[in-house]
Specification:
Layout: no helix or strand
Length: 78
């Protein structure tokens, strides 16, 4: 099964899957200051949960665009 496997989504047949599969933990302890612009290009296969305690001031814009690797020309629903 590849990253663009539509069967990996619990919404298969209802909406297009963005892709990605795997199991893992990402942990950040302490301070993680981020300032400026953060850009991510390519594939980022991360699924999981994020938990925060306390105030989390944030602002900005997020854009997500993608397509499957199967070459389908139809619209993608997220």
């Amino acid at each position: 099964m590849g990253l663009a496997n539509p069967l990996a989504s619990p919404y298969a047949g209802v909406a297009g899957a963005y892709g990605g599969e795997g199991i893992g933990d990402v942990a950040v302890a302490g301070e993680m200051p981020v300032a400026g612009t953060t850009m991510v290009a390519g594939q980022v296969p991360i699924l999981g949960a994020v938990r925060f305690a306390g105030d989390l001031p944030a602002g900005g814009v997020v854009s997500i665009a993608g397509s499957c690797g199967c070459g389908a020309a139809g619209p993608i629903l997220y």
